[in-house]
Design a protein that fits this description.
Blueprint: E1 22-26, H1 28-39, E2 44-46, H2 55-66, E3 76-79, E4 82-85, H3 97-117, E5 120-125, E6 129-133, E7 138-140, E8 151-155, H4 158-175, E9 180-185, H5 195-212, E10 218-220, H6 223-230, H7 246-260, H8 263-280
Parallel strand pairs: 1-2, 1-5, 5-9, 9-10
Antiparallel strand pairs: 3-4, 6-7, 6-8
Helix pairs in contact: 2-4, 4-5
């Protein structure tokens, strides 16, 4: 008897090696896999502008990386004695405007150089819901604790997401023709939006990605299905019952490795894992 539905390891017409630069952007999957790859000493640049959740903000990150002039004054805002960016995580905020701009420009420069040589770009959508700063009619990546009344919440449409990313992909392929783009949908449930609303959001993201994968260089990795259909039991979740627990994260990492790593890459990764355990070992006193 089977007591769970095991997801087959997805197949891709390429493999990731230790020589391949990998850029990851978006929601929690990008953070988890970015950490996994970094610990195992892959050539990784993960969420350089912070964790991003909605497709528009992730797209804006790519637009600004390719063209810094896209970062207009509308994205800069002075609040609570700090300059903040509506395109970045709160870690970029600073009380000094010059220092604020300097650290953003440095990150853009580093990310642009990485993007131009990257072989793989992983993009994880977290939610189709977004917040628009009413004063400037601007979809934001982070509300920076500005009062809720200044924002309007809405759900992106499938066609809207598809149109944005078709344009983005075209520009990306111009600057890096060999780039492979792998989309994922975060399995983390945003129950603050509501149970039914969360389903609508995730469905919107899946349907948008389905249309985008008609491009030969665009693929989908089923992180969402691994947790929701394979690891259905709540023992695989964290205490909030929305985020994956540690065992689930390790399981998804294993499927990721089986899907993308060659045998030689797996062997090297296992050697590095052993080295890391040895280096992190603290002898008993």
């Amino acid at each position: 008897m089977k007591f769970r539905t095991e997801l087959p390891v997805p197949k891709f017409p390429f493999q990731i090696s230790y020589q391949d630069p990998i850029l990851l952007l978006g929601s929690c999957f990008s953070d988890h896999i970015g950490t996994f790859l970094s610990k195992n000493r892959f050539f990784v640049h993960s969420n350089p502008f912070g964790t991003l959740f909605n497709p528009v903000s992730i797209a804006n990150t790519l637009k600004m990386t390719m063209d810094p002039e896209f970062f207009t004054d509308d994205y800069r805002y002075f609040f609570d004695n700090h300059w903040v960016s509506f395109a970045h995580h709160g870690s970029f905020s600073h009380s000094d405007e010059n220092q604020f701009i300097k650290q953003i420009n440095q990150q853009w420069s580093d990310t642009k150089a990485f993007l131009e040589q990257a072989r793989f770009l992983f993009i994880t959508f977290g939610t189709a819901y977004c917040y628009r700063f009413i004063e400037r009619d601007l979809i934001v990546a982070n509300c920076h604790k500005i009062p809720n009344a200044q924002f309007e919440k809405s759900r992106l449409e499938i066609d809207e997401i598809v149109q944005i990313y078709r344009e983005i992909v075209q520009k990306l392929q111009q600057i890096n023709p060999s780039l492979k783009i792998i989309f994922t949908v975060s399995p983390v449930r945003h129950l603050g939006d509501g149970f039914h609303e969360n389903q609508l959001s995730k469905s919107t993201l899946h349907l948008a990605i389905k249309q985008l994968t008609d491009n030969k260089n665009i693929f989908y990795f089923p992180a969402y299905e691994i947790l929701m259909d394979d690891l259905r039991d709540y023992r695989f979740y964290a205490e909030d019952l929305c985020h994956p627990g540690e065992n689930a994260v390790r399981y998804i990492e294993g499927i990721f490795a089986d899907a993308f790593f060659s045998q030689a890459t797996k062997e090297k990764q296992k050697e590095i894992e052993k080295e890391n355990k040895f280096l992190n070992h603290r002898p008993l006193k």
